[in-house]
Amino acid sequence: MTQNIYDNAKFFAEYSALDRSIQGLDGAPEWPRSRSYIPDLEGLDVLDLGCGFGWFARWARSTGANSVRAIEISENMLSRARDLTNDPKIIYEQGDLDNIKLSEHDSDLYDVVFSSLTLHYLANLPELIQQVQTVLKPGGTLVFSIEHPIYTAPKEAKFVTDAVSGREYWPLDSYQKEGLRVTDWLAEGVQKQHRTTASYVNLLLKAGFQITEFDEWFPNPEEMEKCRWYRVLERPVYLLISAVKN
Amino acid sequence: MTQNIYDNAKFFAEYSALDRSIQGLDGAPEWPRSRSYIPDLEGLDVLDLGCGFGWFARWARSTGANSVRAIEISENMLSRARDLTNDPKIIYEQGDLDNIKLSEHDSDLYDVVFSSLTLHYLANLPELIQQVQTVLKPGGTLVFSIEHPIYTAPKEAKFVTDAVSGREYWPLDSYQKEGLRVTDWLAEGVQKQHRTTASYVNLLLKAGFQITEFDEWFPNPEEMEKCRWYRVLERPVYLLISAVKN
């Protein structure tokens, strides 16, 4: 069972105060890039894995999606998502993506599957990717963002400042050691699953996807002006991938 | 013009003493992985970009390749390659891959293009990849290895040992700052061109390739027993990619 950190009171309170929680998609600096990978949703059926407060689900409907099925493990987040939504074509559903069955018998259900900063929590990702391949229609698109493997790898994921030179660097180690990482971000003991970039790419290729977009996101100058996230130039924080079902 | 470090006497002497120079492909720990990406070469026409001493060219012919065109910037290396070769179907050619024209007018010339640890030296890589796409036959395969972007990125590409904990890590910085890196490896002032993983992938996608294999090489236990290259588990050193012309 995936750790449900979003139902930890301290984590939830702090997460709720982030720009991306208050402003929605516009508060997520990587959103313009993710959005550029999403096809015209007019009339399409969409699945959102880890929907959080439902910002993407509502945006998808606002751009013409026919329906959105939005899955989330956290009851806290689902509850707020439902409060923010008045749309019978968005179906929110509580579910643990590490143990879910996306469909009992059906395949070819969705045109687009979207997942924002969720898949790096999952131990059973290979199984989920295989299911996504099954429920996507042929030619359907999977768009997802994750924490970048460079970001999740280190035993101690904090910038180091060299005492002599003052130079700052990201202390990369353990890159090839996949598995559990425990970090303190908003709350103590947040559990993630580190995988290499190669593992993500090969999961997709082996499941029968073709990679169509691949981005180690960083802000353009205009976005940097807004987010002032200079250290992301030293090492990537997000990996964005788009893939099409063959 | 690409720096021709292999014609630097000190570099050449030290490079010539490496396992991969003396033992050929079997002295290159990443070779078994690269080899697994190469199709059956029986009757195929092959282009080798940065052929060094010609180990790959001779291997390709020994497995049935119809012909190999092998390009190398270093006269030192070409001279030894010619000494080691007795095969009129291997054509060695001196050339700077940053300024080469692979063909004046023809396309669809080769079934397989191979390049080992060469492309990270090139400033004009986008132009070369586009040419490779042109000279490959439809369905043809490009297999290459490069120094991994995690390895080329840092301003100071040397492991750091934390004075207090003794922990060793790779001091990653400047990842998004593409361009020239100058390192001391075998000789002083070796020039490389750092690019992000995303840049390599997107160069291929935009040129009309489909990614088919993607590997951040590290040794399996048996290979580790032989090469004892334990630090490569902390951060990848090589990136291996196979791509097919659409």
TrEMBL record, chains A, B:
PANTHER family referenced in this protein's UniProt entry, alphabetically: METHYLTRANSFERASE, UBIQUINONE BIOSYNTHESIS O-METHYLTRANSFERASE, MITOCHONDRIAL
Matches recorded under InterPro entries: Methyltransf_11 (IPR013216), SAM-dependent_MTases_sf (IPR029063)
Any one Gene Ontology BP term: methylation
Keyword line: Methyltransferase, S-adenosyl-L-methionine, Transferase
Gene3D superfamilies referenced in this protein's UniProt entry, alphabetically: Vaccinia Virus protein VP39
Domain Methyltransferase type: 47-144
GO terms, molecular function: S-adenosylmethionine-dependent methyltransferase activity
Protein name: SAM-dependent methyltransferase
Domain of life: Eukaryota
Keyword Transferase set for record: yes
Organism, as annotated: Fusarium heterosporum
Pfam family name, one: Methyltransf_11
